[in-house]
Amino acid sequence: MFLTQRNQYALRAIVELAKRVGTGPVKVSEIAEAQAIPRRFLEVILGQLKGSGLVTAKRGYHGGYILIGEPEKITVGSVIRYLQGEPDPKDCQTCVFKLQCPTDRECAFASLWNRVNEAVFGIFDETTIQDLVEGEKVVES
Amino acid sequence: MFLTQRNQYALRAIVELAKRVGTGPVKVSEIAEAQAIPRRFLEVILGQLKGSGLVTAKRGYHGGYILIGEPEKITVGSVIRYLQGEPDPKDCQTCVFKLQCPTDRECAFASLWNRVNEAVFGIFDETTIQDLVEGEKVVES
DNA sequence: AATAAACCCGACTTAAAAAGTCAAGAAAGA
DNA sequence: TCTTTCTTGACTTTTTAAGTCGGGTTTATT
Fold first, then answer.
1. In a domain, A140, yes or no
2. B11 and B63 both lie in a single domain
3. What is the tally of structural domains in chain A?
4. Cβ atoms within 10 A of the Cβ of A120, count?
5. What value does the CA radius of gyration of chain B take, rounded to a whole number of Å?
6. What is the longest distance spanned by two Cα atoms in chain B?
7. Domain limits at B102?
8. Per-residue pLDDT tens digits for A126-141
9. Residue B119 domain-assigned?
10. Longest alpha-carbon distance in chain A
């Protein structure tokens, strides 16, 4: 609901890479199997992730993907922001979410959407990939 | 992103009805025009909303829709919960959001999704239709 | 050098969900 | 009785997401 299937796949792939930090390149097919993601589709997704600088790839015989940063320092929020890209200028920016408001400036929902957005990214930003690897982290604060 | 276009229409329609509480039935075409919603589509949506008991309709000459409860007592959360209906049993219930987890019980995302969901509905539940009518309310938690 | 294992890239297809439309019918007031 | 307005369910269109495919390039091994 909050994330597309594709973006969940991306996060899962990063988590999988995080689990194997230090063990050399991880093949797409390994990640695909571990996380039950269609291999071809995952190739597309990892290709996109390379652009984020979070991940790099090595080609050839013992090739595969490698997580660049440290899992404790990568937040879920930063990944999601990258995946979502720039907001579509055709959408209403006040409402953050979808399409133009009929009532341009006086959007009754603006405040609500802002609060929701802040709450959600507040959580995303305080959750790291390492937290996900560890499975169930309850954030203090 | 959090709400479909359709569900936003539904909320807008309720807000429009709330604005006119006490002035008798409001025609679909009036709501449609005020909120820039395709009339035929709005008929479908209002039909659905009748099932919630939030709204009732009067037919014929001076017919239209009427909000049943008081805008201060209707929360956005209750409306959205109604609109979204029962969660699809095919989806992963632990993750609250989409599809089955590949890693059934040990879903790394379960805690994250729960926290996000609670945060979002926390906001939805403390926001009333009246708050939306008033335009910009900053909730004092 | 040849081979095989990987990633790389862009275009393509399919599938699913959401958005929107339509026609004919039933109630209610004028 | 006539007009207005909601009612219903099925239908169509549009958009977005998901997933596939073929042929190419890089790299380690032998």
1. no
2. yes
3. 1
4. 21
5. 18
6. 59
7. 76-133
8. 999 999 999 744 555 4
9. yes
10. 59
Q: Which residues pair with B56 in a beta bridge?
A: B66
Best residue in B116, B131, B134 for a mutation probing chain A (most A CBs within 10 Å)? B116
Helix (H) or strand (E) holding B134: none
Q: What is the CATH number of the domain that holds A128?
A: 1.10.10.10
User: Under a CB-based contact definition with an 8 Å cutoff, are residues A49 and A89 in contact?
Assistant: no
Q: Strand D: which positions are within 7 A of a protein CB?
A: 3-10, 17-22, 25-29
Does the nearest atom of strand C lie within 7 Å of A28's Cβ? yes
Rounded CA separation B3/A130 (Å): 30
pLDDT at A25 over 90: yes
Is B140's pLDDT higher than 90?
no
Q: Which residue has the tokens 């609060």?
A: A115
Band the pLDDT of B26: cuts 50, 70, 90. Answer: very high
- Tell me the pLDDT of chain B averaged across its residues: 88
Give me the amino acid identity at B137. Answer: K
Contact B3 A97 (CB under 8 A): yes
For residue range B48-99, what is the model confidence (pLDDT) as tens digits? 999 999 999 999 999 999 999 999 999 999 999 999 988 777 777 777 555 5
Task: Tell me whether strands A64-67 and A55-58 are parallel, antiparallel or unpaired.
Answer: antiparallel
pLDDT computed for residue A137 by the predictor: 47
Residue B125 sits in the same domain as residue B86: yes
pLDDT score of B110: 84
Backbone angles phi, psi at A28, to 5 degrees: -55, -45
Question: Where in B1-141 does DSSP place strands (E)?
Answer: 55-58, 64-67
